[in-house]
Write a structure and sequence with these properties.
It is a single chain. By secondary structure, this protein is mostly beta strands. It contains no helices and seven strands. The strands form two sheets. A four-stranded antiparallel sheet has the order 4-3-6-7, with no helix packed on it. A three-stranded antiparallel sheet has the order 1-2-5, with no helix packed on it. The radius of gyration is 14 Å and the shape is elongated.
């Protein structure tokens, strides 16, 4: 195979630690053979925007700082980009104690 490999969703995406404690750094990681960029948008249980994070290009991961998060369950929308551009969005839940 020649050229740049692209990936199709769904791609396994993990958050660790999960559950987390407020103040933890949570690593969000895509398990993929191709280079992906992950951008996160985090919402609380009321649908309020809590945080957004842009990952480094092509690293398959980014880090979310939970400092200031109240205990609860958060919806993390992960926008996935490959070398061709936007691939799609996946959601995961993050519990903060």
């Amino acid at each position: 195979m020649t050229g740049v490999q692209t990936c199709a969703l769904p791609i396994p995406i993990t958050a660790s630690p999960n559950p987390a404690n407020a103040g933890d750094l949570v690593n969000v990681h895509a398990i993929a053979v191709c280079a992906l960029t992950l951008n996160l948008t985090v919402y609380d249980s009321g649908g309020n925007l809590v945080n957004s994070v842009s990952g480094a290009t092509g690293t398959n991961q980014t880090t979310l700082d939970t400092t200031g998060f109240s205990p609860g369950t958060y919806q993390v929308l992960v926008a996935v980009y490959d070398s061709e551009g936007f691939t799609g969005t996946q959601a995961l839940s993050l519990v903060v104690n």
